[in-house]
Every structure is written in C-alpha cells, then in structure tokens.
C-alpha cells in the first residue's frame, strides 16, 4: 500500500525513480509524484492524479537531477488528487518527503507544534515534513531534526526525505512499513520492494523498525533512534528481472494463472527431501504437534486458502483447525485453547490486519508460522517459523498463483504432519500433486471455452453467484472474490444448501449461477440446488469433475484426488473472472480502489 523509491548517484534520477515507481504500481495507483534535485540543490516537483504513465507525461525532460524521491499512492487520508499526492514539501520548499504508512497522531502533532503552518493537503503525511522544517529552523541539523520527528510519530511509516541544502544526501526512516536500501556502484537507492530497483542492483539491505538512514552516492549510514550505528551486510535479492515482466502476455493475471502448474511442480521439488519424501523443518513439525489446535489467520484470498487448509490439516493430519479473518480476530479474539499454534497465511507477508494479530500472539508467547511468498517480509521476520510459497513475484492485484501455492504448502504440511503423527498416508501426496499440475495444464488449455462462457454469461450481468458444498463452497468464496474485485460484478460465493434459506430471493431471470461439483458425497445435493435456481430463472453454469459430470455441464475438470480439487476447480473461475473483465473493458491487473499489499488496518 503506497510504494516509495529514492535515488542518489550520477544517473538521471527522474528516469530511475519513474521506472522504479512503475514496478511498484501494484502497491497503489491513484496518484503519484517525484522530486528530483541537482547537485546545486535546485529541485523539481511533479505530482499527478492517476497512474505513473500520467505522471510521466507531466515530468519535464529538462528536469535533470542526480538525487530524488518518488511515491505511488493508495489513498488513506484525503482523496486521490495531485494535491494529496506525495512528495509533500515544507513551506520554504527546502524539504520534500514521501511516506508509506499511516500516522495515527498527526492531528495531535499538528495541534501541538504546527498551528501557524498552512497545510496544502488532507494527508497525515504533511505534518512530518513541516515538523522537520520547524526543528531545523530551531537549529537542529537535518538528520537530528528527522530523528526527533520520527520519535514523535505514532503509527507506521517508511519515509524518504530530500533536503535541497544537502543535495548529496537522501534520508530515510522505517517503522512497520517495508523499506529496503539498494546498494550500487556510485549510487544507492531506496525502495519499498526490491522489484523496483532490481534492474539497477541485486544487492539490498533490509532496514529494521526504528532505524534511520543517510544515503550518499557511495555510502549507506544506518542508525537507530538512540544513535547506535548499525552495520548491515547486503544480501543478494534472488529475483529474476524477467519474472517481473509481462513478456508477451497482455496482463500479469493471465501470466500468473498460466504459471500455476509450474508453481505446484516447483513446490513439490522445493519441499522434497533427500530421501524423496516431502520434508518440513522438524522444529516446525514438533511445535505444531505440541499444540492442541491450529488457528489460521489471514485476509481475503489467503483466508480462503486457509479454509482449504483446514480441510487438509484436519482430514490428513487429524489436527483441529480454526480459520479466522485477521481484521476480526484482532479485536474480537475467541476463547483460545490451552496450546494454540498460529498460522499466518499471506502472499505479501505485509498485511497489516494479519500483523496486528501476530503482534498480539507474540506478546502472549504463542508459536507462529508464516506461510508467505516473500522471504524477509514482516510476517516472516516476526513469526517463529516460515514456509515459503516459491511462487515467484505475483504482480496482478488479484491473487491467483499465490492462492494455489498456499494450498500446495498446506497440503504438503498436512502430509508431513500426518506421517510425523504415525498415520499411514491414504495417498501419495507427491504423486497426486503431480496429477494436479497436469490437470491444471488441461484446464488452462481450455481458455477459449472460458472466454466464451464469460462472454455469454458475465459480460452484461449486474450480479452473479458461485455455489458449492464443502471444498466447493470454499472455492466458491474465492471465485466470487476474484470475479467481483476485477469485473465489478456483484458476486456472492454461497454454500449451495444455504441459498434456499433467504438469498434465493435474489435469483431472477438470467442471473448467472456457477455451481462447482468436485465431491461425490455432495454432488447429488448440489445438483438439486442447481435445479432450484434454474427453475427460478437462473442462467446456470456447471463446473464438474470427470466421473461426477452430466450431459450439459459446461466445464468438466480432469479427475483428481477430491481433497486437492480446489487446486484445479479454482482455475476456471480465475479465467472466467479474467475474461469477464476483458469483456467489460476494465483493467484486469489494477482494479479500482485496490492495491496489492494492504499495509493499513
Ligand atoms: C484478492 C487478494 C486479497 C489478498 C489480501 C491478503 O485477490 O489478493 O484478498 O489476498 O489482501 O493479502 P496477503 O495475502 O498479501 O496477506
């Protein structure tokens, strides 16, 4: 949520910043801005509502500079507008500042210190730049003023600061929001995500909460708020620049859907031990076996993966599992068992709602495991253990391959736990995941069918339903989220049997109802529910698994282990969402009002 970049060196700063922001657009794309300055401290500020391409058009080619900062925004305080876009400047134009995060006490700070200052935006951020100006006017050096200000701030922040009187430096500070320093030859950079700067360097330093940084073109100075200087060795970011390009694909979402069979195969390889069996760090397994209940905490799509995980962990490993929405759990905690074990599922590893729960469960000393796509992310760092998704960067805002990778990791975890408990596996997980990957390929090859169904059923409708039972219900929730978030069709994912208890009143002539049938035990009942909505005018689409299919079903999935069916049945729903959005003429990768990494509660 919001992306920031910074640069100091001897190249054209505006180009580095703009290219960096383009790679961070997934974090927010309602407005953007950059500030660049030359070695004499002459600066240029550009801000624009909309995407980076709009900002690019505003940036003057002759605005040369060797240092600067940039920001792409997902509005929290104040509407998306050029005025509210970052960087924000001090009244005298000396300081420019970009911020990712939320300052909770900005009103109090304004009241206490800045009553005489004229504010130009509705943001919580502007207070910071005015405070820095105030303290420097009172005699403090920029770095000391910056340090004093961050000590006053309550909330989350990754900050980049430029001072026109010190054009040979860029300053930064971090608390809770992600921020990295990228180290180059004769230049250094700042970024919210290594992806932004990978084309310039693969050497990065992680910053810790409460740290401040001064970058010059040749040095990185890190200090905490108490003045302790920190030594930090850069790590090599294992990110392939090609992974973050669309290549020949029109949208990242389609590329990421197509990558799913490969992700599942890769996952199996990554978790396969020397003896050929699936392996997970013994410490994690023992900590989980010592618990009496697993609590899965996650948001959105990751939460939906958690529901599938519950089935897998309970059925394969015999461990009771509760799944909770992170934002609810945080402030409405249920009565916990004596020995809870917490699993945090998060693609980004940065979701503030999940982190708020982790902070609490850490205070209570409960063991925790992060299942995430991003090594070194906040949830990974702050949990006791981590299992990585190895899915490669997911850039489309709508999550696809991370969801299937999360289920893949949970299936592997269930398998290892079950064996560690001495249970004889009822099936060979490695073999069955291989079959899943092949089945995914088959469904992905059916793009034309999906496009046609999307055109016929979803290109004009105002609302839609996904229905299913058990595993198919959990996939329906995810399918509905996918469709609504990118096509803006009001969609509900419903337990097929529950519809008749009220919601069936919404079914009228032509409303699309997509039913998922992958389980023999519930197939008959779901068929009954399909008839109920069909007789009330619904335009039904049936996605069934081979063996359970009937004549007229529009999509038939290859037969796979029903416990793993979600991995395959979700794919047509992803493709339907994708094509429905294309038919309706919207941007698939960047739906309105959303951002990829939700770092505010
Ligand atoms: C939907 C989607 C979101 C995320 C949610 C949690 O397509 O991507 O619902 O799943 O914001 O994000 P992570 O997984 O990064 O914690």
Q: Which tags fit this structure?
A:
single chain; 601 residues; alpha/beta; Glutamine Phosphoribosylpyrophosphate, subunit 1, domain 1; Rossmann fold; 3 domains; eight-stranded antiparallel beta sheet; seven-stranded antiparallel beta sheet; 18 helices; binds fructose -6-phosphate
Write a concise synopsis of the structure shown.
By secondary structure, this protein is α/β, with parallel strands linked by helices. Helices cover 36% and strands 22% of the residues. The site of fructose -6-phosphate (F6R) has 15 residues, from helix 9 and helix 16.
Describe this structure in words.
- The protein is α/β, with parallel strands linked by helices and 601 residues long.
- The chain folds into three domains: 3-243, 4-Layer Sandwich (Glutamine Phosphoribosylpyrophosphate, subunit 1, domain 1); 246-443, Rossmann fold (3-Layer(aba) Sandwich); 446-586, 3-Layer(aba) Sandwich (Rossmann fold), CATH 3.40.50.
- It has 18 helices and 25 strands.
- The chain has an eight-stranded antiparallel β-sheet, covered by helices on one side. Strands 5-6-7-8-12-13-14 form a seven-stranded antiparallel β-sheet. The protein has a five-stranded parallel β-sheet with strand order 17-16-18-19-20, with helices on both faces.
- Helix 4 (126-137) crosses helix 5, helix 7 packs parallel to helix 13 and helix 14 packs parallel to helix 18 (566-584).
- The longest helix is centred in the last third of the chain and has 20 residues, at 401-420.
- Fructose -6-phosphate is lined by residues 299-302, 346-348, 351, 354, 398-399, 481, 485, 597-598.
